[in-house]
Amino acid sequence: MIKNRFFFLISLLYIVTMVSAQKKLFTHEDLQRGGGPTSLPVLNAKWWGNTLVKTNSGECVAYNLKAQAKVGVCSNANDIKTGDTLFTLSQVNEVLRKGSLATQKSLRGVAFPYADKPFAMFVTPARRVMLDWKDNKIIWTAERVKGASGEDWNACSRNLAYIKDDNLYVTDAEGRQLQVSVDGSRELVYGQSVHRNEWGINKGTFWSPDGMKLAYYRMDQSMVTDYPQVNIDNRIALHAPDKYPMAGMTSHEVSVGIYDVANQKTVWLDLGEKKDHYFTGIAWSPDNKLVYVTILNRDQNHDEMWSFSAETGQRIAKIYEENNEKYVHPEYAPIFLPWDSEKFVYQTENEGFSHLYLFDTKGNKLKDLTDGPFVVTSVLGFCKQTKSVIVTTTEAHDLQHNIYAVNVENGRRVLLDNGEGVHNGVLSADGSMVLDTWSSPAVKRQYDVLSAIKPSATSLFRPDDPWRDYAVPNITSGSIKAADGVTDLYYRLITPPDFDPSKKYPTIVYLYGGPHTRLVNASWGYNYRGWEIYMAQRGYVMFVMDNRGSNERGLAFENVTHKHLGEVEMKDQMCGVEFLKSLPYVDADRMGVHGWSFGGFMTTNLMVSYPDVFKVAVAGGPVIDWSLYEVMYGERYMSTPQKNPEGYKGSNLCLKAGNLKGRLKIIFGYNDPVCVPQHTLSFARACADAGTQIDLFAYPGAGHNMSGHDRIHLYEQITRYFDDFLKR
Q: For residue 607, how many C-alpha atoms fall within 13 Å in the half-sphere facing its CB?
């Protein structure tokens, strides 16, 4: 009996080993490029008014949510209960052919611009086409301008703004091309994002609600110093400069114009002093008469929101003002209530956490809509029926994003989702329903439809696990105390698929550490990166932790690093290192570190500040000297070199180059416009002067990040470096 049990156990062990051995291994291509065999299927669905529509290659079909509620979640998108077919690809193409227009290959790109009309819009390289699928006819079409960029279309007027040859144009609904500016150039920029995309700025044109007036940015950067980038594609390399205002240097000057499509004239807002000021949060009043702009000083410790006449550009009234001894960060524009044009919601972290407040148009704060030790991470819109604002917040847990309805009248918050994981929502036209895409540590991805009226959920689709045939590493999460001994810091820990706790493993710390970014949350795999999975598969322990200075934890958590970037962040990361050393399977003599951008700064800083801790590091696109970084971001966190010389000196890694002991490789884009090559080259010079050694690799023609084939090449290179010098 004992003998038989012994052979049974041996056989069972053999079977488990063989099954494990048969599991596939991930490749770089699997994990870096979307759409491969290990990628999760995506549900192609959009709202047409309050009807959810499945948009696939061959047909657009309305979902039958009542039937789906009885069926439950499906693992195959084809099993979801759908209702009426709205239109088919063949139907659309027949209408397009009759109009002598190019046909469509798929319906996935269709848009539904009007909630109450059966109109579908398609954007082709040559035209915008809108058709009525019930009457099978084209109702509007407009030619697209070849070479245009930054297209901004207004559904109400059907006017289109765009940039061509450095100038701003508008094509109206009748197809007339109206030239807004005539003197555009690389020195004088129209209709594009300004201030290097800080403060939530991601575009440069803003239509009035009726689409008849266009607010737009004009940026004069003729006074800004050129950074001498080089284009090596020619036999003799060409000068290809970027406008790059470094910390403490002369910055650009911005104006805001209002173009009237009817009279084809521009008025300029009376913004006051433009030098050393920033302008953000552009918004229109619902009646098209006023424009709101937030004005921020160069020290970034004081801002004011003003209203302006859209007719004359005259400054009307100061609506809001904010001060902070370190910095303010006005990322949001006012959002007017759909049912009351005299009130708006404004988001600010003025009271310590990013929250929503209700104001009237005279600037009186009427009430706090949200409060508490959590942050509002996004505003999805409004539910008109319940007079609620629909938001995502970290209220349930620091690592989660959950969807709530906040009643504007009484401030009552109602959780709409299941209270788990990280949720992203898209509202139906009246805000009564939410298409919720979410994941959690236990769920890779799921699509639900939530009710914002009486909280309930209809589960649509949870894709089958594409990793089921692969050797998947073990992913866990937890928290440790920061260097202050009080604050919780959250980490992600990944161990190899065949993990043996009795072994010692080389360990890599991956980090970012800077503002605006967090790496760990409660989504699938705690927000893992593909490269971490690949490295764990190759026998590494991977560790990621968000230190103080990162985001979504409140203002004090972030601004503790003010004027001394790198100091607090490194102390917290070293707490993470001590935690790793306490794990019996971590080989403290084989520890590596890797990060990009701010993470490249942190990686290099750790190597020269704690030279006996890390054996190998790869720093990507690093900041080396903050005096070489741009004005807007750099001065917010470091002030100017003139006002904070000690802070700049303390974070200048060139001054620490002589401390380097381990193997450090720096990789950078040869034409990086964000963290210019001078950073890396200055550090290389400092290392040569100090007699220390680094390895370098540059991607000619690349910017701050690598894409396409270069990205695969990049991660093969990083992996090889750790394999060569850390693993052995």
A: 34
Which residues, listed in sequence order, are joined to residue 541 by a DSSP beta bridge?
507
Residue in 181, 572, 672, 679 annotated catalytic? 672
Split at pLDDT 50, 70, 90, the class of 33 is low
Distance of CA 436 to the CA centre of its chain: 18
Closest CA to 505 of 727, 716, 724, 720: 727
User: What pLDDT, on the 0 to 100 scale, is given for residue 34?
Assistant: 61
Say how far apart CA 166 and CA 361 lie, in whole Å. Answer: 36
Q: Which two tokens stand for residue 562?
A: 């003010």
Eight-class DSSP state of 225: P
pLDDT, greater one: 469 or 8: 469
CA 545, CA 491: separation in Å to the nearest integer?
4
- 255 is a catalytic site residue: no
277 annotated active-site: no
| Distance separating alpha carbons of residues 663 and 678, to the nearest angstrom | 21
Q: Quick check: is 713 catalytic?
A: no
Q: Are 395 and 374 in contact (CB under 8 A)?
A: yes
| CB 145, CB 177: distance < 8 Å | yes
570 close to 593: Cβ distance less than 8 angstroms: no
> CA-based angle 170:197:195, to the nearest 5?
90
Residue 13 phi/psi, 5-degree rounding, is -60, -40
Q: Which of 704, 710, 713, 723 is catalytic?
A: 704
**DSSP character at residue 576:** H
Report, as an integer, the average pLDDT of 620-638: 98
Q: Are 634 and 679 in contact (CB under 8 A)?
A: no
At 371 the three-state DSSP class reads coil
Looking at the DSSP assignment, which residues form a beta bridge with residue 594? 510, 618
Q: How far apart are CA 300 and CA 266, in angstroms?
A: 29
Contact predicate 463/452, CB 8 Å: no
- CA–CA dist 643, 640 (Å, integer): 5
Q: Please report, as a single letter, which amino acid is at residue 413.
A: R
Q: What is the pLDDT of residue 81?
A: 87
Q: Catalytic one among 439, 597, 639, 651?
A: 597
Task: Supply φ then ψ for residue 696, to 5 degrees.
Answer: -130, 150
Q: How many CB atoms lie within 10 A of CB 626?
A: 26
Q: Closest Cα to residue 430, out of 115, 86, 61?
A: 115
Q: How far is CA 154 from CA 129, 181, 445, 513, 657, in A?
A: 14, 20, 33, 39, 54
692 vs 5 pLDDT, higher one: 692
Q: What is the Cα–Cα distance from 426 to 433, expressed in whole angstroms?
A: 8
